[in-house]
Amino acid sequence: MTDDSDINAMAAEYALGTLDPGERASAAARRRREPALDAAISAWEIRLGPLADLIPAVEPPASILARIEERIERLDRRSGMVEGAGSNVINLQRTLGRWRRTALAASLVAISLVGVLYVRESQRLTAPRTFIAVMQKDDASPSFIVTVDIETRLLTVRPVAAPAQPDKSYQLWMAHPSFEGVRSLGLVSERDLAPRPVLTGFDRSVIETATFGLSLEPVGGSPIDKPTGPVLFHAKLIQATK
Amino acid sequence: MPTTTKDLIAYLARTARGDRAAFAKLYAATSSKLFGIVIRILSRRDLAEEVLQEVYMRIWQRAGDFDATRASPISWMAAIARNRALDEVRRVKPVSIEDVPEVLDLADPGELAITGIERNEVLQKLLKCLEGLEPNKREMVLMAYYRGESREALSQHFGSPVATIKTWLHRSLAQLKICLGT
User: Fold this and answer.
1) Got the DSSP string for A161-204?
2) Quick check: A217 and A169 in contact, CB under 8 A?
3) Which of A8, A15, A19, A228 has the fewest CB neighbours in a 10 Å radius?
4) Are B30 and B77 in contact (CB under 8 A)?
5) pLDDT tens across A36-75, in order?
6) ipTM of the complex
7) A interface mutation test: which of B72, B123, B145, B175 has the most A CBs within 10 A?
8) Is there a contact between A45 and B75 if contact means CB atoms under 8 Å apart?
């Protein structure tokens, strides 16, 4: 799906809403890193947008605005993890909790592996301010290495001896107390090793303290804004070069 | 006091700068429209209320992305609302077979065309292009847009295989694009 007509067909059906859940998640993830697809989707949203004028208005309950403002308040305080009580914050806590639980067993061996990789990466990489995170299954088989150039905000995911998962997709996520829920950073595959501009909107301090997670999703990725499948790994970035 | 497009653009610009009062005005002017959009797709009030909150959180966070030279504020917000509602409806009912009888209550385009809603040139042009589609293709596009129907639900409704529906959708959308010339 790379030529113009394929992109246009995918964009049109994304905007209309008829892609199946897997295709929809894949299109949503791709539009974040493919400007051509993003532009095509926006163009379709604009083409179909006038139809919304014909939809009768329905008054929502009066309490909704206050609930939204509460969420904004919590977002502004940037301390949702410890004191928030709303559903999204709880979701975030749950997600983080699940990541931690899942990765707890692996974290001890991860520490030793990070040490090894730190040396290797720092010898190899000459660019300043490179951060890495290791996501691994056990001490014998490191599975994914996330590299972030903090200056350019480019992120690279390298699967290393990652087990092939037929009929599944690996999806990378990011969580941080400064935003609600988790953000998808796209699907991970052996074939796509190009640096991704998925972190451009984030402050350096957020990236440096964020938690990255990797989940196993239906082909094409999670149909919603958070992992639906098992979260296999989680990790924080460490500085690989000075 | 009717809110004009110009007002909405100003509210969005101020919202992008973190102006909560402007955001509240934006909400007051648009929430019943966006709630109408999401409740039509989700059919369930509780889900629609939750989704509406998330839609406005996104609008709050992404107001800076709005480009008044490209889209109207309501089209931009409607797209956010539809996308969030569609994500939810695909999660909640991946195949909405049980809801198919309900989709028959969709107003037919002829009825839509005579509703007394003030509409701009763009909408009139779009409706004209929709009228150029064969009636069942037009109904299919409108059912997908207004009710968020999946290909499977459309396949049930029109008694055609999903692959045929996909082909119809692609052709109809391509025809619309040519007709609109944009």
Assistant:
1) SPPP-TTEEEEEEEE-TTSSSEEEEEEE-TT--S-B-TTTTS-H
2) yes
3) A228
4) yes
5) 999 999 999 999 998 888 888 899 999 999 999 999 988 8
6) 0.85
7) B145
8) yes
